[in-house]
Amino acid sequence: MRDPATGGGDADQEHPEPPEPGGHVGTTTPGAVVGFALAGLVLGWLVRPVSVRLNDAAPTVSWLPTLALLFVTVLVATLAWSTYRLIHRRHERLEPQNAVNRLVLAKACALAGSLFAGGYFGYALSWLGLTEAALARERVVHALLAGVSAVLLVVASLLLERACRVRKDER
Predict the structure, then answer these.
(1) How far apart are CA 118 and CA 114, in angstroms?
(2) pLDDT for 135
(3) Cα distances (Å, whole numbers) of residue 114 to 28, 109, 117, 139
(4) From CA 110, how far away is CA 154, in angstroms rounded?
(5) Which of 110, 162, 136, 140 lies closest to 44, judged by CA?
(6) How far apart, in whole angstroms, are the C-alpha atoms of residue 145 and residue 69?
(7) Distances (CA, A) of 69 to 28, 88, 149
(8) Is the pLDDT of residue 1 over 60?
(9) Residues 65, 68, 73, CA angle at the centre, nearest 5°?
(10) What does the pLDDT look like over 79-109, one tens digit per residue?
(11) Burial code of 148-162, b = ≥16 C-beta within 10 A, e = fewer?
(12) Which own/partner contact pairs does 65-74 have at CB distance under 8 Å and 24+ positions apart?
């Protein structure tokens, strides 16, 4: 309690100890990955009918998203391999901030990749039965390839998460 006459306070209040960290960052659960993929599947499936209803043309899928997903996949996979070698092969310590950054990157890429995979596969599914025209087949092929690229990103991200793990006796 503070004494108004002296302006001082209790000795306990002058130098309080910092609280112990309470939270932790866990690995991405399979339920979260599947949930994001299902949400993406529904949204991707809705793109063609909604866009046709709004402006009479369904969007095309170019090579750019597929290549961008593959590029990010290669970066995440390379980071996963170097993290695995650093922690599990050479038994070196990683700075705590770097470890958290890598884990957060892995979680974000795993969830975003599953959302994109579901979205592209849903878009390809929306064209089922309509693949008579060459442009429709091209859209399905590009969407499927982008979906596969996104699945590879999810795999690389989960490998990075696994590489960030340390045994309890190594902490």
Answers:
(1) 6
(2) 82
(3) 11, 8, 5, 20
(4) 4
(5) 140
(6) 10
(7) 20, 27, 6
(8) no
(9) 125
(10) 999 999 999 888 888 888 898 899 999 999 9
(11) bbbbbbbebbbbbbe
(12) 65/116, 65/120, 65/146, 65/149, 66/142, 66/145, 66/146, 66/149, 69/113, 69/116, 69/146, 69/149, 69/150, 69/152, 69/153, 70/149, 70/152, 72/109, 72/153, 73/149, 73/152, 73/153, 73/156
DSSP, collapsed to helix, strand or coil, labels residue 17 as coil
Q: What is the dihedral of CA 154, 157, 163, 166, to 10 degrees?
A: -100
Give pLDDT tens digits for 119-142.
999 999 998 877 677 788 888 999
Residue 72 structure tokens: 């990010």
* Alpha-carbon span 48 to 102, nearest angstrom: 36
Q: What is the pLDDT of residue 90?
A: 87
Give first-to-last CA distance, the chain, whole Å: 40
Contact 67, 150 (CB under 8 A): no
Residue 155 has pLDDT above 90, yes or no: yes
- CA 140 to chain CA centroid, Å, is 24
Residue 63 token pair = 């090579």
**DSSP state at residue 168:** G
